[in-house]
Each structure stands twice: as structure tokens, then as C-alpha cells.
Amino acid sequence: MTPEQILAEAPRVLTQEQREFYFESGYLTVESLIPDETVERIKEATAEAVERSTLIAESDTDFDLADDHRADSPKVRRLKGADSHHETYWDFAKGLVADVAADLVGPDVVFHHAKLNFKHAGGSHIKKWHQDIPFHPHTNYNMVTIGTLLTDTEVKDGPLVMVPGSNNGPVYDHYDLEGNWVGALSSEDVAAIDEDSVAYLTGPAGTITVHNCRTVHSSPAPSEDAVGRPLLLNIYAAADAMPYTANPMPTGHSGTVVRGSPARWAHHDPRPALLPPWAKGG
Asked: Following DSSP, what letter does each residue of the chain receive, concatenated?
């Protein structure tokens, strides 16, 4: 579906003004959308996951660990495939936030993957400027990442940072000059970003952050939070957005239709798609 067709559908959660802002700017925050009791259930599941991480010393298929991770001082950078770790995560992914996804990608929605990122004091898990779509290119750009702030998040906590309107600009090359995949913008492209105009996605616990797969974003600053700033990320695609590559971060629920019906026709955006090195023939 085109943005105009999506906007013609009746909204479920968001206001029409919020939806229009998203398509214009490429991002959105909705403060305190998630009820406190839901946030607490997610935090309880998260505490259980962090406790399990104390049993391992190195990163594995479930956990990405910081170099200074120890059993008596766990430092998890990412819980991979969060929806497969605890039913609380999956119940949440197919609940209210799936309705938000439907407001932005159309009524037929497919779950892509989920992850829980932490940012600890000292610079752990700093993300460079990038776009999401080169990592998992699809036939169109109706893919959205919905983050949920589990703790109050300010600029000092190292939030996501967006370049407004970049969703309507180019998809940048994420390879270096030697043809190596780096998964980030070049230094020349980064230098062109007007840092005075970037948007910091902050808010109290229960706030959701939303960004389009084409939006240039990063999380460049370290957190001052000694405990680690947790951000639960659920990624969705329109059912008519067909993948060009295998899902690089599949979970137990990847490909599940969470709203509406499976697509009978693929929608092809005329804008070109950058293929990552794991694409067939890449």
C-alpha cells in the first residue's frame, strides 16, 4: 500500500495527525502509551533474562554480552529474539503495538523480529548512523520499528536519535569504498547531517518510539545509567512487503501475521533497494 492508501484507513491507536507526522518525518514518539502494569511485566521478564545471562561467559545465540560481563555483574548488550524467550514479550508484540504497526504499514501486518537492547554506562552498545532497510531489504518500505521505553529515558541515557525527513531521502550505501559491508553511513554522509535538527526520542517509561526502515538514525552517545538503559524493539512489515533476503535475525515468530491477512499480491516500491552481502548472489 502507498502512504495515501494507509492514511485512508481508519486509525486504531494513533491520531491522524500522528500518522501524517510519521510519514513526513520518519519517526514518532507517543508518551506513556503502554500501561504501567504492562511495563512492569516486561521488566520482570527482562530481569529473568538478565539472571540467565549470569550462567554464560561469552555471547551466544541468545545474548550479546559486553566485554566486562561477569556473573556477579551482568552486562547484557542485547537479548536476541526476545519474543522467543518469554511469553510476556510475545503477548506484548501481538497486542497494542501491533495495532500501532497497522496504523503505519496498513491493516495486514507481519511480525519480523524482536530484540531488547541495553545501553550501559561506559559506552557499551553505541550504534553508528544507519538505516534499517539495507539489513533486510523488502519490495517496499512499509516496515516499522516500535521501541518501548522500560525506564524513564532522557538525552543523558543515550536514546535513539533520528534525522527528520530522511525516510523520504535516499537509501545510503552501507558498504565502504573497498566494497566491504560496514552496516553504516560513510563519514562523508554523516558529515552532511545537520546535528542541530536531529530528534532525540525520549520520554517516561511506557513511551513508544517509532521509526521507518528508511529513516537515518543512531544511538551514538553512551548512557549515564549505571544499570543499563533497556529498550524493547519490535519490528513489523506490511504483509505485501516481500523480503529479498532471508531474515538475518529470525525468531520463533518471524513471519507470523499479527493483524489482518496474508498478502495475495506483492507491492513493489519503484525506488531501488540496497542488497546486503548475505543476499543471494551478493
From this structure: --HHHHHHSPPSSS-HHHHHHHHHHSEEEETT-S-HHHHHHHHHHHHHHHHHHTT-SS--SSEEE-TT-BTTB--EEEEETGGGT-HHHHHHHTTHHHHHHHHHH-SSEEEEEEEEEEE-BTTTTPEEEE-SGGGS-BSS--EEEEEEESS-B-GGG---EE-TTGGGSPPPP-B-TTS-B-SS--HHHHHTS-TTS-EE--BSTT-EEEEETT--EEE-SPB--SS-EEEEEEEEEETT--BSS--SS--TTTT-EEES---SS----SS--PPPTTSTT-
> For the whole prediction, is pTM greater than 0.85?
yes
Tens of pLDDT along the chain (282 residues)? 999 999 999 999 999 999 999 999 999 999 999 999 999 999 999 999 989 988 888 888 888 888 888 888 888 889 999 999 899 999 999 999 999 999 999 999 999 999 999 988 765 556 799 999 999 999 999 999 999 999 999 999 989 999 999 999 999 999 999 999 999 999 999 999 999 999 999 999 999 999 999 999 998 766 666 567 899 999 999 999 999 999 999 999 999 999 999 999 999 999 999 999 998 654
